[in-house]
Design goal:
Layout: H1 2-8, H2 15-33, H3 46-55, H4 58-74, H5 86-159, H6 168-200, E1 207-210, H7 211-221, H8 223-228, E2 232-236, E3 247-250, H9 252-269, E4 275-281, E5 286-292, H10 325-335, E6 339-344, E7 350-357, H11 361-366
Parallel strand pairs: 2-4
Antiparallel strand pairs: 1-3, 4-5, 5-7, 6-7
Length: 367
């Protein structure tokens, strides 16, 4: 018999479980065959069947279920001391059906557990692989900074004519190369910051900051980029044209990166001859900044994904870049307790906006 094979197998790790199942079967058999057939104890076979399903193979569980069914049915005629009635046979068949259903459900549960275990193992392997990839990317990104900085310094030395005279045509080429290397360095630093923020969290050096002042400083630094694309940058201070103060508790360096990313994005996607408008709105609870461009706008299906890491849509707006600038911007804004969003501007263009909590008046006065 199946159970005898399991017990007599010297190397069987489930020997103890086999003895438990044999003991339970013996008890049920004694109850069944020492009482009249009208008393059905076959339902008690469900316990050993479920134990076998958890410890042994599918075939072993099936064989055990069949043995239980046969023993339950045979008790109608064996040992033969009692009269056989139709109701007794019906009760026995109902018990057999219960045993079969138990076996089927136990088998399905086994398959489900096996599939779940495989999925968990696969997910764990994927997470481990993703972690290795991120560590590799972070290390590689950090190592790339040194040669880029060295190349920029060398080119700037050529530009200053430290190695001899440089003609005008050569200066233009050197300037282009410096600009290209600086762009690459900026992308590398952005990637490194993104990985660092995801792992360690963004650490802020908080102090009272005027968003109007930061916006104007960043706009000045991007004047050359705007001029090269023939884009005009203008400010809108809300209810009046007079300069306002939008005080928040923030990290000035990180907030400059927010303005730089949003303004660069707006300039790059505005039509030539268009404008980028910076709207600064003071509120009772939140200070709001909106950067409006005159580009082609954003496809509706892309709006929910714009601030995700490495996301690059299919529209003209996402034709360039690493897909990290807006993600880093979202990290910085959310670290300040703010929110960021994007929407289309009517009749054309897009709006990238964020809001930060207003700096309490008591904190402003104390500083």
């Amino acid at each position: 018999m199946l159970l005898l094979k399991l017990v007599t197998h010297k190397n069987n790790p489930c020997l103890r479980t086999s003895w438990i199942i044999i003991g339970l079967f013996t008890i049920v058999v004694l109850l069944e065959y020492s009482t009249p057939p009208d008393y059905v104890f076959g339902y008690l076979y469900i316990g050993p069947i479920m134990i076998a399903n958890a410890r042994f193979s599918r075939i072993a569980t099936l064989q055990l279920t069949l043995v239980a069914c046969v023993l339950t049915i045979f008790n109608v005629w064996i040992p033969g001391f009692f009269p056989v009635r139709a109701s007794t046979i019906a009760s026995r068949f109902i018990a057999v059906m219960a045993l079969i259903v138990t076996g089927i459900l136990s088998d399905r549960n086994r398959l489900y557990q096996e599939a779940l275990s495989k999925q968990q193992a696969k997910l764990h392997a994927q997470q481990k692989l993703a972690s290795v990839r991120e560590d590799f990317a972070s290390t590689l990104t950090h190592d790339l900074k040194t040669p880029l900085l060295g190349a920029i310094e060398t080119l700037q030395a050529f530009e200053r004519e430290n190695f001899g005279p440089v003609i005008t045509a050569q200066k233009k080429v050197i300037a282009t190369m410096i600009k290209s290397h600086q762009t690459s360095l900026q992308m590398v630093e952005t990637l490194l910051d993104v990985y660092r923020n995801d792992v360690e969290g963004l650490k802020l050096d908080l102090a009272p900051v005027n968003l109007v002042e930061i916006a104007e400083e960043v706009a000045i630094t991007l004047t050359e980029l705007a001029s090269s694309r023939r884009v005009y940058i203008c400010f809108n201070y809300g209810e009046s044209d007079f300069r306002k103060f939008l005080w928040v508790s923030g990290d000035a360096f990180q907030l400059k990166r927010v303005f730089t990313n949003l303004l660069t994005n707006a300039i790059n996607h505005s039509l030539r001859g268009g404008k980028v408008e910076i709207i600064l709105e003071a509120g009772s609870s939140y200070q709001t900044v909106k950067v409006v461009d005159t580009g082609a706008g954003i496809k509706l299906e892309e709006l929910p994904n714009l601030f995700k890491r490495f996301y690059q849509g299919h529209s003209d707006r996402q034709a360039k870049g690493s897909g990290l600038g807006l993600y880093l911007t979202r990290q910085i804004v959310e670290a300040h307790g703010g929110t960021i969003w994007a929407e289309n501007h009517i009749p054309n263009g897009a709006i990238f906006a964020f809001s930060l909590p207003v700096l309490p008046f008591q904190m402003l006065v104390s500083t």
